Amino acid sequence: MKKWREISTFGMPLAYIMGFVCVDSLIRLMAGYDWFSLKAILFSISFSSLLAAIGLLFKGIARPIFYSMTFSLISIIAVGQLIYYRFYQAFFSVNQMTNLMELSTVSGEIFRVLELKYSLFLIPTGFVLLACYWFKSPKKRTRHDQLIIVTLTILSVILSTVTKLTFTQASNEGSRYKDDVYLYETLFDKGKAMSEFGLYQYTLQDIKLAISHQQEKTQVVGQQTSEIDDYFQKLNHTHIDNEMSGIFEGKNVVYIMAESLFSRAIHEQATPTLYRLMNEGIYFENYYSPHYKGTTSDSEFISNTSLVPSVNYGTTCYEFTDNAFPNSIASVFKKAGYSATSYHSNTGEFYNRDAYHESLGYDAFYDQEALGLEFLEEWEYMVNWPSDADLMNAASDIFLEDDRFFSYVITTNGHTPYTTQRTELQENYDYVSSFIQSDDEEIVYYYAAQNAFDQSIEVLMGRLLEAGVLDETVLVIYGDHYPYPIHHDKLWAYDSTNEWDWQELRKVPLMIWTPGIEAQTVSKVMNVFDLVPTMANLFNLDYDYEHAFGIDIFSELESTVIFEDYGWITDHARYNKYSEYYESFDEIGTESYMEEMDVKVIEMFEIGQKVLRDDYFKR
């Protein structure tokens, strides 16, 4: 009996620790990473040993309840992280709590993407629950409890300390983001951090960083302005007029951020209007829109400000609405005598646009209610989306009243889900299914959604023509991101061009069109940061180019596409972080050039966060 009590005391925490290691290995395996990471396993044992020691402080029924509840919670967190990863190819972070609204936009898809493999988590969960039932907890703490508590606590501290001592550390500034220390201190690459350190250490460090960054944000601002000044001076984005300067001066603008418009979506039959504009206007064939913390919300911020969005703090549209953005595209068009209004067929609370767009310089933001659009039933939200054609009609009623207008329109028809749930797309589906050759219904519905968006552009052009201002209006259409809810395997199965090239997934359309413009294709590498400076040049606006992270793409300056994982692309070379290789395109892309680019990447992210945190432009 005495021996059985000893086994019982030790059996429950041992099963608990084994279960934690199993869950941690499963999440890495299912996300496509190496399930056996020594650092992650040691951190898992360290974390679970400490929790197991805490559990031994309880007596009687309280002990198995503690073990059961904490283990069930960690299993739920693991599955939740995998579902999030399925959509965004990144793991959730605590400082993204304000961005849960973005997750709600794919809520209708969550049950659809649940796979049988997730049930594997029931095995360690059942094992731990069975151990909690089988090994009876004593009503009183024994000397064995005390010994095991001390042993597990010491083991936890030793394993955590020793594992951190094995971290690699780069010898030069440019390679910092390739070492374990920088990765652990910043968690900048959440996929790699999860792979290297495991779920529990990732979560603990993530919470620690969120608290630290929030404390930073509340400190007195203005302390870093000299460092920021030096950075922008070193960027040297001094503007020199070029052959494209002012070619659209005085013309109206409809600036359209197209939901999930992917480069492969432009199709002669599925999207005939976009296909025409692409071939008749200025088309930027190497335009990238990287993901950072958000997807749509970050593209929206960057394409309005040419600034780095929040990475360390909460989502930009919630955390920094009180900041000053005098260099925003709306502000500079207003200085030129334009009205500046924005439109979206969702509510003003979504992404906090009521307040956010005011801080971006817009005179007014018109949401679904203000536009008089039909409200969908609550169950239809995030499944059937309001019509983009109706959005264009309602927006036109407003901005066509102004003499000169800059109108920002955010569309929705291209949004997920791409399934039979989208009853409003039935006609579009019937049309595109006759020529989109794919056995995957999701791909066909994606083209149906973009066909609906394409029809809205035709409606907009009709309204401009009817009002007699089409010749005096420029359409700027760009995708916010690729359709990430469609699994990348499906995208590559449909079109294997650049298969397994994660950076190329971030390539989306950008086209600028007005009647009579000379068609041209711009091959220069470009990204969303370059949109505002390029627009300022084309319209000859009074713009502060020297305090933008992007460039006028028609200048002699070089654009750098910087991805969320610190990979990058220029016209001369690239670093693909996913496959961890450098590639030179010409004689300029030397080893020293690549080292300079690595430093530039780190500086951009670090200074970009300080610009937001210190409200740099308010001074």
From TrEMBL:
The keyword Transferase applies. It is a multi-pass membrane protein. This is Sulfatase-like hydrolase/transferase. Pathway: Cell wall biogenesis; lipoteichoic acid biosynthesis. Signal peptide: none annotated. It holds the Pfam family Sulfatase. One of its GO terms (molecular function) is transferase activity. Belongs to the LTA synthase family. Keywords: Cell membrane, Hydrolase, Membrane, Transferase, Transmembrane, Transmembrane helix. GO terms for cellular component: plasma membrane. SUPFAM superfamilies: Alkaline phosphatase-like. Its main location: membrane. CDD domains: LTA_synthase. It is found in: Cell membrane. InterPro entries: Alkaline_phosphatase_core_sf (IPR017850), LtaS-like (IPR012160), OpgB/LTA_synthase_biosynth (IPR050448), Sulfatase_N (IPR000917). PANTHER family: LIPOTEICHOIC ACID SYNTHASE, PHOSPHOGLYCEROL TRANSFERASE I.
